[in-house]
Amino acid sequence: MDTTAEDPADLLRRAADRLEALAARTTAGDWRSGGLLASRPEVVAVRPDGSTEHVAEARAGSGAWITALSPEVAPPLAAALRAAADRPHPDDTLVTLARVLLDRLGSSAHRSTSNP
Fold it and tell me: What is the pLDDT along the chain (116 residues), one digit of tens a residue?
């Protein structure tokens, strides 16, 4: 989806809405790194050089990132995006963040849990 021509305020509000919808259907709670589970999601990191690594196999490097961005982050982040949308000239950095979020979240906030 090309969001470059979209009104920055609309873009920020849409990203906030999608982020909240994703957090609402994600496992709630205070996420922390802990023991290993037999089942894990199919999440693959593609590096700039084209190599890949299964994120579940890279727990040492990705565990802290995943726990830092638990659903508890969504409400204040969505509030920051909405506050920026209400300004006459939204901060370019937050508009860029909204574009990245919308690109990563895809066209629907109501996807299955296996494809957020």
Answer: 566 678 999 999 999 999 999 888 877 766 666 665 556 666 777 888 888 877 666 666 677 777 778 888 999 999 999 999 999 999 999 999 999 999 988 754 444 444 44
CA distances from 100 to 2, 15, 16, 33, 36 (A): 11, 9, 12, 26, 30
Domain boundaries in the chain?
8-25+41-105
Q: Is-contact 21 110, C-beta < 8 A?
A: yes
Distances (CA, A) of 50 to 13, 53, 54, 58, 80: 33, 10, 13, 16, 34
Name the pTM for this structure: 0.69
